[in-house]
Amino acid sequence: MPDAPQVAPSPLQRVRDHLHSADRDRTAQGRNLTPAQATRTADLRSRVHELGQDALAAGDEALALKTLWLIDEIAAMDRALLRDQG
What is the pTM of this model? Predict the structure, then answer.
């Protein structure tokens, strides 16, 4: 009998998972950045965290998708900053 197909989590579940992991990992994310970079990315993360909470509270999948896009953009920015410091 074949395995059941994997169902991708909904955007709301992905935001919920990210917010949960972000709470745990928040202090480690800015370790290798300059103080100014760490402050800027911490502010962006805080705003995206609030946006994610709003999406979850409203059950708004469109807002959840926008939040996930912002999360990916911030992660890419962090990688670029770390690479440039390299």
Answer: 0.74
